[in-house]
Design a protein that fits this description.
Layout (H helix, E strand, L loop, with lengths): L9 H68 L6 H18 L6 H32 L1 H7 L2 H80 L13 H62 L1 H18 L5 H29 L8 E4 H11 L1 H7 L2 E4 L4 E4 L1 H17 L8 E9 L2 E8 L31 H11 L4 E4 L7 E7 L2 H15 L33 E4 L2 E4 L2
Parallel strand pairs: 2-4
Antiparallel strand pairs: 1-3, 4-5, 5-7, 6-7, 8-9
Helix pairs in contact: 1-2, 1-3, 1-4, 1-5, 3-4, 3-5, 5-6, 6-8, 7-8, 9-11, 11-12
């Protein structure tokens, strides 16, 4: 980097200019503050002292006039009621004078005039008012009127003259204060104009300096940077101006050299990344194609194996019926094994075919009422429930978006499993319930069967996984795998709740409709402000239970009832 030429830096120049302007503005601000304080004092004198004094002097004169009028009226009528204005005027006089004395601290001349008024008023009261009142009370109105002479009127005129002098003095003081306010306001305006001129001159000087020292060098630097940005990485950047700009130009040129040296490496790295991305894209396409082929293979294999298996099963059954008892006992046993194996293979293929169809053959999502679905499930499992003396109940279920055939298969598998894995000598009970958790419905299928150990909670959802032998509990081991795939296809999750006291509780979630979430939020808002006990906690789906009677309408508002049909107990909450 080349050495920086001498001269003042941009920072030093700006600081010097701002210091000079700041000193001038601070001096003007101090002068304006002092003048503003003086102006406030003078305005306060006009508004809060001389102004109220003028009003109070007039009130004082009115109080004295009321007293004089009341005394003359009493001397004429002799009625005590006519003295009420005199007493009220006397009280008003005392109050007004006391208030005026609190305002004349800065005006001694007004205080002397007020003292003169007070002395003349007291003299008039001693020599005229009180004697007239006393004489009228004792000797009557004629004697009282005799005391209201020209001398008495002259004394009251002297009182009025002293009040007029007081008012004139107050008016002079107010005019002097107003003149002082105008003078200080003019000085304040001049100071503000001077401050504005200082700001304008300083701004002009700063603008011209910035144009010469900042804008022009920056414009030249930007032009050279654009040339480099357009691809001329060998263009050397040179800058003129203050030392800071020269150093900035050197730093930008150093950055240009570094960018030019790194550009080749970046290009090589980009070529390598593009090659890797192309390989990853090929692998992703190959994986997608492989998954599609596997699904197609599973579907075709399970579909095409139906025909030979049907033939094997049919001919084995024909062989069993035709030659039963004609061969020895071992031959009959072998034939039975063949028939059973063919039938089990056929069930496995059918289940595999159903498993492969989930998500492939779709009818589109619609709004599905799970109450109706459970009614259909009750009809499908009616024979098994009657055989096992099973009880199927459910609470009011929600409406969700999904495929009704898949949801029916889902709940039918869960109910069938609950009936199949029952305890000996204990009538099985299956209960399906739902509650809103956030933006999902959590649906639970709970029974009183043999239960599942916690260590096998995840294993049961794996395809063809069995926890018991086929002799103890028949089946292919694919039912819960189908349940898991249907739930995940609908955007939910499924798990086994191992904390239930007895039996098995399989829970799964399904996305709730937006209107259900909004309704739950609206219902919860006022309830949060009211205290509730443990017995008040309910879930949104806690409604009267519905029975497994397929002939009963699947409605949440159905009337409560209970009954028994054959060997199947039906409970409606």
């Amino acid at each position: 980097m080349k050495p920086v030429s001498g001269g003042w830096s941009l920072r030093r120049r700006v600081i010097s200019l701002l210091t000079v302007v700041g000193v001038l503005l601070i001096g003007l601000a101090v002068a304006e503050a002092a003048m503003a304080a003086r102006n406030r004092t003078q305005i306060d004198a006009v508004l809060n002292q001389t102004g109220p004094l003028r009003v109070q002097s007039q009130e004082l004169l009115n109080a004295l006039l009321d007293q004089e009028t009341a005394v003359r009226g009493y001397a004429v009528s002799g009625k005590p009621a006519d003295l009420a204005p005199y007493r009220e005027g006397l009280e008003q006089e005392k109050a007004v004078m006391a208030s005026m004395r609190t305002l004349i601290g800065d005006y001694p001349q007004i205080g002397r005039e007020l003292q003169i008024v007070q002395e003349r008023v007291e003299q008039w009261r001693r020599s005229v008012a009180e004697p007239v009142i006393t004489t009228t009370e004792r000797s009557g109105t004629r004697a009282g009127q005799a005391l209201v002479t020209d001398r008495a009127r002259q004394q009251f005129d002297e009182v009025r003259t002293s009040v007029s002098s007081l008012q004139d003095e107050i008016l002079d003081a107010r005019q002097q204060s107003a003149a002082a306010v105008r003078s200080s306001s003019n000085v304040l305006v001049v100071l503000l104009i001077v401050a504005a001129l200082v700001v304008v001159v300083a701004g002009t000087v700063l603008l011209l300096s910035l144009d010469r020292m900042v804008i022009r060098p920056l414009t030249g630097l930007a032009t050279q940077v654009r040339e480099v940005a357009e691809g001329d990485y060998q263009h050397r950047i040179a800058t003129v101006g203050p030392p800071e700009f020269i150093r900035l130009g050197d730093d930008v040129d150093a950055m240009r050299q570094k960018i030019a040296s790194d550009l080749a490496e970046v290009r090589q790295a980009r070529e390598r990344i593009e090659w890797v991305n192309s390989q990853l894209q090929k692998q992703a396409e190959e994986l997608t194609r492989s998954n599609r082929d596997l699904e197609q293979f599973a579907y075709v294999a399970s579909h095409d194996l139906q025909e030979p298996l049907r033939k094997v099963a049919s001919f084995c059954q024909l062989l069993q019926r035709r030659y039963a008892g004609q061969l020895d006992e071992r031959a009959d046993q072998y034939i039975a094994f063949a028939v059973d194996g063919a039938q089990r293979m056929q069930r496995l293929i059918n289940d595999l075919l159903a498993f492969s169809r989930i998500g492939r053959l779709t009818t589109g999502f619609t709004e599905v009422d799970l109450n109706k679905v459970l009614g259909e499930v009750a009809g499908q499992t009616e024979a098994a429930r009657q055989y096992a003396d099973a009880e199927l109940t459910w609470t009011d279920m929600p409406v969700i978006r999904g495929e009704e055939p898949l949801l029916t298969n889902l709940l039918a598998n869960l109910v069938s499993n609950s009936i199949k894995f029952r305890r000996a000598d204990v009538p099985p009970t299956v209960h399906v319930s739902a509650r809103l958790v956030g933006a999902e419905w959590e649906i639970t299928c709970q029974d009183n069967g043999i239960g599942i150990e916690p260590e096998f909670a995840d294993k049961i959802f794996v395809i063809f996984q069995r926890l018991h032998s086929k002799d103890a509990y028949p089946g292919t081991g694919i039912g819960l795998a189908i349940v898991k795939k249907i739930v995940e296809y609908h955007g939910g999750r499924v798990w086994v709740d191992t904390d239930v006291p007895e039996g098995t509780a399989i829970r799964f979630t399904l996305p709730a409709l937006p209107e259900d979430v909004e309704a739950a939020a609206t219902a919860d808002s006022p309830e949060q402000s009211q205290p509730s006990g443990p017995d008040d906690a309910t879930t949104p789906a806690e409604a009267p239970e519905q029975s497994a009677d397929p002939d009963r309408p699947d409605r949440a508002d159905a009337a409560p009832e209970s009954g028994r049909t054959g060997d199947m107990r039906e409970t409606v909450g």
